[in-house]
Design goal:
By secondary structure, the protein is of the alpha/beta class. 44% of the residues lie in helices and 9% in strands.
Amino acid sequence: MGRSELERLSREELIELVLRLQRPEKTSRTSSKPPATDRKEQREHSKPGGAKPGHEGRSRVVSDDPDAVVEHRPEACACCGASLHAALPAQIVSVCEQIELPAVAPVVTQHQRLAVRCPRCGERGVAPEAARGTPFGPRLHAVATYLKTFQALSYERLQAALSDLFGLTLSQGGLMNLLRRTQGCFRAGRDAAITTLRKAEVVACDEIGVRIEGSNAYHWLFHSADAVVHTASPTRGAVVVREMMDGHRPAVWISDRYTAQQGHADEHQTCLAHLARDVAYVVEVSDDPVPWRLQLWLGSVFALAKRVTDLAASTLSAKRRSLDRQLGAILATPSRCDLTRELQAKISRARDQLLVFLAYPGKVEPTNNGSERLLRPAVVQRKVTNGYRAMWAAEGEAAIRTVVDTARLSGANPFGAILKTIGA
């Protein structure tokens, strides 16, 4: 803004501009910005990492079935020098293990088609032709898919990893074809997960931006207690939710306050973690007591959420009424701070969506952190690779993540789920 533009501003507009410039920048604690964006001096005063005081230590569990056991016996007495022969009884004092990976080399099976001449009639018999197809087996497909999808390797790095670790020479075009074949194996699992999602009583949803074919697009996530569904879409509109749910209307929808996420269930639980960050920012900026009271109120809600499954339904109902009365009094408190008034208006619009989780103890979370945790690998992939060159790659990876994340709900590990799906 230039000098001439500033001279045309009114006194009130100048005051508002100065106040806005004096406000501190938002951080990872007061917004959804990642911690890496915090200024260095702010990170220097943050809490140190590592184990906290009182944390119970952990050590590596000794194997119950080792591949080899080596006994180390003393040969002579350290006191008198007498020989300690092997027939003397011994007891185990301590155990330590050395773990090593075997050298891995590809197993190549060459199929030779042979012809044999009949000694009786002289006819030349030829063996039937072996089934043609990809020369790569299911485990190689699974390893490449795992490294590309869950370790966020580019085609160049994946090519180098397969060469350095396994001695395999594959072109980047061959890798692309391999991964494209693999993605077709996950369509049935993705369809099954969507079918399960469309029967769920509680559904949580979130989305992040991603680049696809050089344009802005979105990676959507839907999950319930029994299914996790990832999908890629060029739009952030509510049409994505309607197409995914196909008319199914859950009892509760969990998400942030984004408009496209509203109105898809009988009740809506707004993510309280998002509101808590907004409140924390106003507490830092303003001396008004209202944001501080809101912060205390949210603290009481989070404390109640930790023991919600231990309380009777009547107790939860009474506490919900009490918390709602307290919130009403806070929201009705007049304030001269514009940020406080904006915060009060924002929370007032979502007031009926803040304590829904108390009516569904153990089934509905007060935050949407579960969705953000499931989206985090996709965020890492986006930052490392900067998106997808083709829509088929984005849709294929979404199908893989859908099948793997759904399998992980039952305790499966990612590579095992990939190998099982490809080998089915």
